[in-house]
Amino acid sequence: MGLAPTASTNPADPRLLGRTVKRIAFSAPDIAKRVHELGDDITAAYPEGELLVLGLLKGSFVFLADLVRQIRRPLQVDFLVASSYGDAMASSGTVNLVYDPETVLAGKHILLVEDIVDSGRTLNRLVDVLRTRGAASIEICALLHKHIAKELRHPTRFVGFDAPNEFLVGYGLDHAEDFRHLPYVASLA
Ligand code: IMP
Ligand code: MG
Asked: Which of 30, 118, 128, 162 is the catalytic position?
């Protein structure tokens, strides 16, 4: 008994809840190639010291899993969960960590892995919080960057792709929790 076809460009993809892909923004092979390159860049950027790769859940889980397997040096992995915020929290400038990493951050090189940088608010706040923990360095790696953020306080050192200003799903990115498992990144029709 065979599995359903998994061709990433199949407009009748059974994963899509009956919806169709408007556009595949980044195909699975394109992503794999770029993640391999990012792994090389990150490996070269950390010649020494302890590296802790911190994935921001949930959106980074697919990207992080592929990325860490392309980094050829010792590292540890942990995750954090930031609360979603509404307008009230946006004005308060605080971010709540719903899950705080158990791993000690002090003295380590932290690589914060995010799925997509949109307004940049999440990262602005998270990096501020993490900066109080005594890390040796904090850098950001994002699969996608929309380059529309007005006030990014912390530059994204490692970027997979410049993203179109469309709502994207797949490879970890969701719409109302659906479509995270697509092996490609797409906008929906
Ligand atoms: P920011 O704080 O506005 O940069 O938002 C970042 C978060 O919003 C990402 O981690 C995603 O979870 C979500 N997000 C932003 N743009 C998209 C998109 O195009 N598709 C899916 N999720 C998105
Ligand atoms: Mg996210």
From this structure: 118
